Amino acid sequence: MMNQGGNTQTVASLDPNLVENVGFEWGTGFELKFVEHFRNRYVVDASQSQTSYLPSTTGSGAVSWNTHGVDNRSIENGILPNSTYHHEQHTEPLVRNVQDGVNVTSVASSSSLGTTAVSQDYSGYTPYPNSSDPYSYGNTGYQGYYSSYQQQPNHSYSQPVGAYQNTGAPYQPISSFPNSGSYPGPASYSGTYYHPGDYQKAGSYPSSGYNNQTNSWNEGSYANYNSHQYSNYPADATGSYNSGTAAAPSLQYPQQYKQWTDYYGSTEVSCAPGTENMPVATTSNQVPTAPGVTAGYPTTNSQLPTTYTLPWQQDSSSSQMPPLQPTAPINGSHDSYWKHGAPSFQNHHVSHVQPQFQKPMDSKTPYDNFQEQQKVACPQGPNLQYPTAQQTPQSFQSPPVQTPLLDNRRTSKLQIPTNPRIASNLAIGLQKTDKDGSTATSAAKPAYVRISLPKPNEKVSSHDAADSILKPGMFPKSLRGYVERALGRCKDDTEMAACQAVMKEIITKATADGTLYTRDWDTEPLFPLPNAELVNKDLQNSTAVSALPKYKRSPSRRTKSRWEPLPEEKLISKLATASNDTVKFSGWTRSNEKDKKPFSGNMSKENGLNNIKFLLSEQKSANKSAQRPVKRQRLAADGFNARDNGDASSDSDKEQSLATYYSGAIALANSPEERMRRENRSKRFEKGQGNRAETNHFKPRNAGAGNLYARRASALVISKSYEDGGSRAVEDIDWDALTVKGTCQEIEKRYLRLTSAPDPSTVRPEEVLEKALLMVQNSQKNYLYKCDQLKSIRQDLTVQRIRNHLTVRVYETHARLAIEYGDLPEYNQCQSQLKILYAEGIEGCQSEFSAYNLLCVILHSNNKKELLSGMSRLSNVAKEDETVKHALAVRAAVTSGNYVTFFRLYKTAPNLNTCFMDLHVEKMRFKAVSCMSRSYRPTVPVSYIAQVLGFPSVSLTNEGCDDKDSDGIEECVEWLKAHGASVVADNNGDLQLDAKASSSSLFMPEPEDAVSHGDSNLAVNDFLTRASSSTS
Amino acid sequence: MAYVSMGEAHRRITDYLNRFSDAVYSQDVVSLKLLFSFSSNSHFLLPLADALNVFQDANRLIKQSDKYSQFGEIIVPLFRSLQNYRIGNLVDAYHAFEKSANAFLQEFRNWESAWALESLYVIAYEIRVLAERADRELAANGKSPEKLKAAGSFLMKVFGVLAGKGAKRVGALYVTCQLFKIYFKLGTVHLCRSVIRSIDTARIFDFEEFPKRDKVTYMYYTGRLEVFNENFPDADQKLSYALTHCNPRSEANIRMILKYLIPVKLSIGILPEEWMLEKYNLVEYSNIVQALRRGDLRLLRHALQEHEDRFLRSGVYLVLEKLELQVFQRLFKKIYIIQKQKDPSKAHQMKLEVIVKALKWLEMDMDVDEVECIVAILIHKNLVKGYFAHKSKVVVLSKQDPFPKLNGRPVNS
User: Fold this and answer.
1) Range with the lowest mean pLDDT among A697-711, A979-993, B81-95?
2) pLDDT in tens, A142-185
3) B369 touches chain A (CB under 8 A)
4) B389 contacts in A (CB within 8 Å)?
5) Which of A554, A576, A609, B169 has its CA 20 to 30 A from that of B189?
6) How many other C-beta atoms can be found within 10 angstroms of the C-beta atom of residue B64?
7) pLDDT tens for each residue of B66-112
8) Could you tell me which of B145, B141, B195 has the C-alpha nearest to residue B172?
């Protein structure tokens, strides 16, 4: 929201342009059409993108784009009757933006980093304004772009406003783009990416307007790109082009959502969405060109279903971008935005939000965790680092998304209605997809299926796995046999996954060098079993990472999402290149290279240069912001070093040369440290391929000091994903890693609700807690003090996972104190914990507390069902217990309304049963008196009533034992009068209750200390007086 | 497991696939539902599971043909579920089945007509049964059983699909009943309320238009809920509806209904015949009925104690316990009748000590105060007409109908 101000500002400044543009825009028939279209279908996104696009393209480029867009849409619309589908489509435009970025990147392929993508985007922009030469990416300086872009953005930005207004109310909110402060758009990620912090402060970057602009520019570039690209490269075949574009939009739709959400979140804009798209684009390109079509192809094919999931927009997106979604939606601004927009959108968001809330976790921990696990060092700063780490894991996920063939299937499958509710399964989906991505195990399983039921995937038999690796019909039978044999050796899923990875590489290789059909697979020796552990680790890491976002609430930490796309690329690249080695510039470089092939090398190179420059400059500014969290940075740096050392990268020649080239370029533009960073960043993509080195680093570090957080976090994350996946037993989680061992020696400690992971130095170990308990038990201070102390003891026990006799005693002590004091809420907390503890077999005063439980139910909740279950749970032993017997008797008395028995029991109550009954005495007395006044005639002696109804109250009995009777009578009369009974004196002077007169006049007086919220313990005055009086 | 040749396996699988797609194309729900019904159609499905184990490539088979592949999302997990079911791996079977059911639900949603309702019923039923068994498996492995809960939320989803307007609405009650079964089993009956509300408040659909069997089940469960709430007139009405409409030959169902209806009827003063208790094997009630007839407090307490567990589990314990007042009433009435025989003129004055003595004979050790309290309560609740004179410790009974019958009304509370 911080950005909001900035945005609005931009809007204002842009106004003039707006006007201009509007005119223009409306001039175009297309636009009108679109608007109408959108109006019907609340495709906010689409309209937005569209509008923005128009203004920016003044030249021919615009036209071409328009037509293109139109074509696409109309076609798609025609095909898909489903509203969901439409929905999707509309969003398409935005998606395309993303895609543009992607495409551009692939084309340029100059830099191996995420940054590359960014820079490319920019390059894309530059050409765009020119519109004459779309391919002159490199030529136009970034600077030029930059400056021009300032103006441009205005156009695009303002444009939407106009469009929305025209379209009508629903869209208007959008125009209020304030949200878009964060909105910057996928394109803007370059800025955001590097300085999440800065960006928000609008320090280094021109403004939020910039971001917005970027978006629009992306679109523009997209247009250029799309229209031109394919025509220029006929080799690639238009077919691929179509598929690429078509597929991308659908795929990206979910992502887009995320993007939006992100923006709104006002956090850093995730470049991820843009990047994510990259893979898609790449694939489409790749397929036609690469010799190993078959190899790459099957995989993508199998993944196709994922795309279908689009109808589930959220879901699929979640599976792909799990981290993003959950987090993003949280933001208020975002919500509001969506509210304005189409209702359907809103739904989605809601669903997103849910997961997030469910898993409120300490964001800090996961963060650290990532750093450690992934060893990705991000020079840019804490925020940055984080994202980076994520990126790697995500690469696994993304692959499924890429579908060259989308078009055909989409029509048939898209219709599946979306169920936003499914989104709650997000985490599962993530995990699963990760797996799938890396292993490519699950053949054509639709993503949504995966999401909902992750487990089955793991169980895929070797056969199935083989299936997924080899598309039936595409490979020689002998090969199939070979794969099956190989997979047959695997003992479990993780091994299987590892095997599959290896196998895939083998096959790709074979395909590449043409031996696929010539080799004798039957006699081919099986490769040694890969170390499943490593793969597994990797998987876990990725899982963890992907799961992480959920925990992140704060915007600054949410960076991850933007990284998602990158990972995809990695996988793709893997497939395409068929090389197993760890490549220095793993993901990006490779994919870029591949991509490059179809395109002209020069162009891309130039682009790369430009991009790099751009990046560097940005990075610099980012550095400033990065420095704040010194500690983290250090960690990150460590990671880097380790990586560097361990990284004996065996790049292919090509890659090597490329790398050198790049580094050279970088050196040209920038200082060595910058370069270092870039390389490091590029390395994080290795993870998929070069697990070994990484994992090695990873272990020792974990063991190191100060890693506690990380370890715990990782365990947490993993456990979380386990739970979500539902497929693994909770026992597998290393809970020990989560446990804090306290070192604090203070006996007294105030209770403070934890808002972050516990700090061992403030947690007391068991011995100290023991003492603390004793101290509380012997303390003369008031209940509030004891309650506070006990709560802190309970907290320390909980964080250290101490569950033993001490725990039981603490809870019992607290429960008793709470009963004495009448603090039912606290008592209930203790009671429910005690129930669990007893169920675990820890001995305590079970009977006593089951009696309390019964009494509590009978006297306070009056829930028949609960009472019944409470009674049926009583063991025979418990039934023999005096306390329990008493409680049962009380219950019988209460249900039958037998006041005589009740007050007898009241006087003989063992333990703290009295305290419970105390709370019921008033009610019982009133019932009794109304019963008496109904059934007795003509009078009832007050002395009898006082005797039967337990007057004087227990509290008063202590004072005067000698004249107890008169005391009781006095009190009783007082009570009767207070309740509207008529008391008369008879001839002997004895007081009598006039039954007949009273029967109609009885009433229940309002309790004097009643408070509006129902819990008198919370009444402020009462609280204060009690507190002060009892302390004194 | 019998050996199945590859060819045979292939044949079985394609047979299944053909049946499936044929059923869908011809909208033949009878054959379609058989294909989902694990529990009742096992003679057909189990051999298929064997075949699937032999012929591992069923997924490819499905994908190969357009005819099958469009149902791939339903069939693939269904096959997996079947395989797991066959080898007794019920948790996995449940997972896969739920996945398949979800896919089917999606399809169903897209079908305009409600032709496939029957197979949705089968799925709802199977998923519940499977979940119960999976939970048992989980519990046996020391894990927390949660599948039934998951099945509950799936069925809630199904309910959402059905509960709109149109032809599909007829199916809503079936799903509701399955949901009731789950909720009652899980002890989360409060969840029933939302479902009930949407059934009860929907004006677009007359309750009578639902299938009879669903109506009976629905009434049975809602009646039971009323028993929990001790809302006897409503419970009586609902359970009686269930009893009168239920198939007279399904004695087990009648017994289930009676198990709750009898306590309800007792509470409103209607006693069952002994032969009925015997016929439906509900003899645990016979002593209670006897106690009510004779005013035998001791017998009542013994009967309650004897079957305490059972009554607690079925949830009628508290209801039966309340019968005590009626037993007192009966006892007082007996005393009154005896007094009347002795001395009609003083019959309406009942001394407290007489009652205490009578209770003593029944080995009920109650002192005067307690009995006085009971008398007061009886008068207060209108089980006895008259008043109590404290000074003389005498119950003065009304001369007219001193012990009013309940006649279908519950005791005043």
Assistant:
1) A697-711
2) 433 443 343 333 333 333 333 333 333 333 333 333 333 333 33
3) yes
4) 936-938
5) B169
6) 13
7) 777 788 888 888 888 888 888 888 888 999 999 999 999 988 888 88
8) B195
**DSSP 8-state class, residue A292:** T
Cis before B145? omega within 30: no
> Looking at the partner chain, which of A415, A896, A935 has a beta carbon nearest the beta carbon of B110?
A415
Three-class DSSP category at B351: strand
Closest residue by Cα to residue A487 from A501, A507, A474, A473: A501
The model's pLDDT over A292-336, given as tens digits with 9 standing for 90+, comes to 333 333 333 333 333 333 333 333 333 333 333 333 333 333 333
Q: Please provide residue A802's backbone torsions phi and psi, each rounded to the nearest 5 degrees.
A: -90, 115
Least CA distance to B313: which residue of chain A? Answer: A872
Is there a contact between A68 and A96 (Cβ–Cβ < 8 Å)? no
- C-alpha dist (Å) from residue A316 to A284, A301, A322, A325, A648: 20, 16, 9, 10, 37
Q: Which residue has the tokens 């005043």?
A: B412
Give the Cα separation of A137 and A128 in Å (integer): 9
Considering only CB atoms, A935 lies closest to which of B80, B98, B380, namely B380
- Report whether A157 contacts A11 (CB < 8 A): yes
| Strands laid side by side in the B386-389 sheet | B349-351, B394-397, B386-389
Contact state of B109 with A729 under an 8 Å Cβ cutoff? no
Can you tell me the ipTM of this complex?
0.82
Could you tell me which of A51, A7, A349 has the C-alpha nearest to residue A182? A7
The two most distant CA atoms of chain A are separated, in Å, by: 124
Helix and strand element counts for chain A (H, E)? 52, 3
Structure tokens at A264: 């709104």
One-character DSSP codes across B369-401:
HHHHHHHHHHHHTTSS-EEEETTTTEEEE-SS-
User: What's the CA gap between A432 and A727, in Å, rounded?
Assistant: 10
Question: CA-CA distances (angstroms) from residue B13 to A942, B10, B59, B114, B254?
Answer: 87, 5, 10, 27, 42
Spatial distance between the Cα atoms of A254 and A252, rounded to a whole number of angstroms: 5
Query: What letter would DSSP give residue A993?
Result: E
CB count within 10 Å of CB A640 equals 23
Residue spans per domain, chain B:
6-210, 211-321, 329-397
Nearest-neighbour CA in chain A from B48: distance (Å): 18
Q: What is the pLDDT of residues A840-885, one digit of tens each?
A: 888 888 888 888 888 888 877 777 777 887 888 888 788 888 888 8
Shortest CA distance to A994 belongs to which of A937, A913, A945, A916? A937
B322–chain A Cβ distance below 8 A for any pair: yes
Q: Which pairs count as long-range contacts for B17-26, CB under 8 Å and 24+ apart, including other chains?
A: B17/B61, B17/B62, B17/B65, B17/B67, B17/B68, B17/B75, B20/B68, B20/B71, B20/B75, B21/B67, B21/B68, B21/B71, B24/B71, B24/B116
CB contact under 8 A, B95 and A729: no
Q: How far is B248 from chain A (nearest CA, A)?
A: 31
pLDDT reported for residue B221 = 93
Measured in angstroms, the CA of B315 and the nearest CA of chain A are apart by: 6
Written as six digits, the tokens of A3 are: 């950005």
Burial A108-146 (b: 16+ CB within 10 A, else e): bbbbbbbbbbbbbbbbbbbbbbbbeebbebbbbebeebb
Strands B386-389 and B349-351: unpaired
Fold of B329-397: Arc Repressor Mutant, subunit A (1.10.10)
Q: Read off the amino acid at residue A606.
A: E
Asked if A743 and A761 touch (Cβ cutoff 8 Å), the reply is yes
Residue A665 to residue B3: CA distance in whole angstroms: 67
CA pair distance A505, A97, nearest whole angstrom: 33
